[in-house]
Amino acid sequence: MKKETVSKIWRAAFVIALLIVGAEGAVLRERVSFNSDWRFRKGDPPGAEGVLSYARIKEWVLATGNEFTRDPTKRRERPSGNLGEEVAYTRPDFDDRDWQPVELPHDWGIEGPFKQEYPGESGKLPWWGVGWYRKHFTVPRSSDGRRFLLEIDGAMAYALVWLNGRFVGGWPYGYASFALDLTPYIEPGRENVLAIRLDNPPESSRWYPGGGIYRNVWLVETGPVHVAHWGTYVTTPEVSPTSATVNVEVTVANASPAPAAVTIRTRIHQLGADGRPLPATVAVAQPVEISVASGANGSAVAQAKIRAPKLWSIENPNLYVAVTTVIANGRPVDEYETRFGVRTIRFDAQQGFLLNGKRVKIQGVCNHHDLGPLGTALNVRALERQLELLKEMGANAIRTSHNPPAPELLDLCDRMGFLVMDEAFDCWRRGKKENDYHLLFDDWHEKDWRAQLRRDRNHPSIILWSIGNEILEQNSPEGIQIATELVRIAHEEDPTRPVTAACNFTEAGYNGFQKIVDVFGYNYKPMEYGKFRRANPNIPLVASETASTVSSRGEYFFPVSDDKSKGFFNFQVSSYDLYAPPWATTPDTEFAAQDQYPFVAGEFVWTGFDYLGEPTPYGGDSTTMLAFTDAELRARAERELRERGKISVPSRSSYFGIIDLCGFPKDRFYLYQARWRPDLPMVHILPHWNWPERIGQNVPVHVYTSGDEVELFLNGRSLGRRKKGPGQYRLRWDDVVYEPGSLRAVAYKNGRKWAETTVRTTGPAARVSLNPDRVRIRADRKDLAFITVRITDRDGLTVPRTHNLIRFHIDGPGEIVAVANGDATSHMPFKANEMRAFNGLCLVIVRSTGRAGTIRVRAQAEGLAEAATVITATP
Ligand code: GAL
């Protein structure tokens, strides 16, 4: 195939992601986005409901996982015949013209509507049910003899795929990435029709899982002799300042009718800022020769040495690319790029975690996969923004709770310098929900786990594999047996990284379970660290999940109580950062334990961002809520429970985030920043200072600073200078009597002035203001501008406690993809041109429509001066 024909070939493809052209101009490998021009419909065709339910057809799907089943006797053969022929939507001639046109990634639940009767635990959004996607495309006649692989990075859930009416394969776990060989079914030179059925069972998730093909889809074209899917594994067994040994294991697949004698050449480049290899070759591996039988795979290891390697680290995330060329009969037949990094990692029972030989405290957060108002539909800029905000706070690590993440998250972590705990499961054989992964565990855990390990093992950011979160078997012999198997699989697929499990049962630290993993993970057990170490002197320990402090941005309730079960009112949670459910703690409690026991490798806070679903303390079953809410609400709830058998809770998203659903920091962002960025001069005051109804009454003031001492002034009068004592992470003035005016905090470090901030009583709301995170975006239909909308007084100060309705207008080549305000109880749709401010703020997310030009956004609210902003979409 010649280069010039390429753009014609991929009529249907939107972006050419990777095009590898050999020395003679022949295209060796192409990987194109397959996200455009899909058609979508909810539900099965009439009469076919349930015909394709997993329980009935699973024998068909299991065969897809054979590549990841090590024991050949456990591999499945597909039944004969063709699955699903009788279902109209699988057929190529089915007329789908009236289906909804969609572009992937797509989350069918996020547009709502929110419904009060839907479970708050999974976001009060309609994510469940069956959905079908169809796509028409062509490949040219000249591609006869080429191989075509469909890569699906994630489809929620129970995916089944047909091409031209013939069943290709499927994959049930909604968080897994998988690939299907389309070659036997594709018809070059004619129209081809892909049909994908998803089935998302209700009661299958403890959070909002989203629904649909919510990650990227790719079409990969290669020759018959090619590097297999996820076919490289790069390790760096020896690393010193002067040299690094790089082993590149390459698996070559031979789909040709004859045996293939191939030479594998690998050269190494640095990765440039544009994501492409820099021209200079920094190392070349000795060529290796292997012979691969027809229809088989063969592997070989090529070794190279990089002199004076640039190490990957949090501060300098240097990356390399191994470019592997497969040569058969003297001609290149494939070329494959693998990004990797050179670094050493080690967990140590005494020293915690060491990166490149230096101790690094893990300052991590757990996150779910949704992107707030954008739902679960993957967007790279939205993820990048999350990581930028977390970096700003001083976080250096991410736990992909509780499932394999989008591959793009790992790419970003590699590039931005985040450590990653890559997690597989939220349950094993014993489920947490009626229809969750426990139904798949026996048949699929090996396939899912090996697939995840093979997909992810070249990412330098990954420092830990996690076999599961709060697994119910953790205190049983069965759990020890399953853990042993999962750890063994991880060591087989990747002997270079330790394996952990996030355990919430105290016993798991003593009953033998702790000895199965390489690094033991405790969730919410700061009181246990000392005892664990005495009982297990040689097992490294990480706080795999911590805090779970809850709060609503900008809400403060009085009187302020230090009792962690207080602070709840009107389905909101006070933002004094003192409140947490029974199993959880304040950030301060965890800090104190980590300081007392420095051998703990660090922590992963629950959570970095608020997420859809799990609105604890107002979620779950009604009794949980009754256990820790305010008296007034409890009385109402008890009455509802008596009269109607259930409680009407509006909450649909979490209160756990350090950052709210829009990406606006809550107060505790600054508590973490004060600890995690000790060299950044900063000081933060809470609450806001607009309390007209509390004049003469007590309003406690808390101050977070990276300094060690603060003097607080109210209207110029000193309220005293206070110093942090041992185990103290915030400074408090609990006896302040409110008067309007200004509250100024001057922070000191080692006796010298360090930082200063002032909070003022504002005037009444006077105008709207718009502040985009970036004024230039790429005109690629993907890039986003996040515009912060504020209600301000005449002087531009954000007015707290304002909830004005704001209407947005947009013109130019841009569209509003979502609006949100961070209020966990709001049922206003995310897909709209209006939103109510929540405590002074809301968010508009704008995407380019694909054309370059000027996008103008205006915001209007009744009685306030309007605002406008301009974003330029550039080619
Ligand atoms: C943990 C669990 C998380 C989340 C959290 C809320 O026990 O692992 O998934 O539910 O509690 O505090």
TrEMBL record:
<dbReference type="InterPro" id="IPR040605">
    <property type="entry name" value="Glyco_hydro2_dom5"/>
</dbReference>
<dbReference type="InterPro" id="IPR023232">
    <property type="entry name" value="Glyco_hydro_2_AS"/>
</dbReference>
<dbReference type="InterPro" id="IPR025300">
    <property type="entry name" value="BetaGal_jelly_roll_dom"/>
</dbReference>
<feature type="domain" description="DUF4982">
    <location>
        <begin position="696"/>
        <end position="755"/>
    </location>
</feature>
<dbReference type="InterPro" id="IPR013783">
    <property type="entry name" value="Ig-like_fold"/>
</dbReference>
<dbReference type="InterPro" id="IPR051913">
    <property type="entry name" value="GH2_Domain-Containing"/>
</dbReference>
<dbReference type="GO" id="GO:0004565">
    <property type="term" value="F:beta-galactosidase activity"/>
</dbReference>
<dbReference type="Pfam" id="PF13364">
    <property type="entry name" value="BetaGal_ABD2"/>
</dbReference>
<keyword id="KW-0326">Glycosidase</keyword>
<feature type="domain" description="Beta-galactosidase jelly roll">
    <location>
        <begin position="116"/>
        <end position="200"/>
    </location>
</feature>
<dbReference type="InterPro" id="IPR032311">
    <property type="entry name" value="DUF4982"/>
</dbReference>
<dbReference type="InterPro" id="IPR017853">
    <property type="entry name" value="GH"/>
</dbReference>
<dbReference type="InterPro" id="IPR048229">
    <property type="entry name" value="GalB-like"/>
</dbReference>
<dbReference type="InterPro" id="IPR006101">
    <property type="entry name" value="Glyco_hydro_2"/>
</dbReference>
<feature type="domain" description="Glycoside hydrolase family 2 immunoglobulin-like beta-sandwich">
    <location>
        <begin position="232"/>
        <end position="343"/>
    </location>
</feature>
<protein>
    <submittedName>
        <fullName>Beta-galactosidase/beta-glucuronidase</fullName>
        <ecNumber>3.2.1.23</ecNumber>
    </submittedName>
</protein>
<feature type="domain" description="Glycoside hydrolase family 2">
    <location>
        <begin position="769"/>
        <end position="868"/>
    </location>
</feature>
<dbReference type="InterPro" id="IPR008979">
    <property type="entry name" value="Galactose-bd-like_sf"/>
</dbReference>
<dbReference type="Pfam" id="PF18565">
    <property type="entry name" value="Glyco_hydro2_C5"/>
</dbReference>
<dbReference type="InterPro" id="IPR036156">
    <property type="entry name" value="Beta-gal/glucu_dom_sf"/>
</dbReference>
<dbReference type="Pfam" id="PF02836">
    <property type="entry name" value="Glyco_hydro_2_C"/>
</dbReference>
<keyword id="KW-0378">Hydrolase</keyword>
<dbReference type="Pfam" id="PF16355">
    <property type="entry name" value="DUF4982"/>
</dbReference>
<dbReference type="InterPro" id="IPR006102">
    <property type="entry name" value="Ig-like_GH2"/>
</dbReference>
<feature type="domain" description="Glycoside hydrolase family 2 catalytic">
    <location>
        <begin position="351"/>
        <end position="508"/>
    </location>
</feature>
<dbReference type="InterPro" id="IPR006103">
    <property type="entry name" value="Glyco_hydro_2_cat"/>
</dbReference>
<dbReference type="GO" id="GO:0005975">
    <property type="term" value="P:carbohydrate metabolic process"/>
</dbReference>
<comment type="similarity">
    <text>Belongs to the glycosyl hydrolase 2 family.</text>
</comment>
<dbReference type="Pfam" id="PF00703">
    <property type="entry name" value="Glyco_hydro_2"/>
</dbReference>
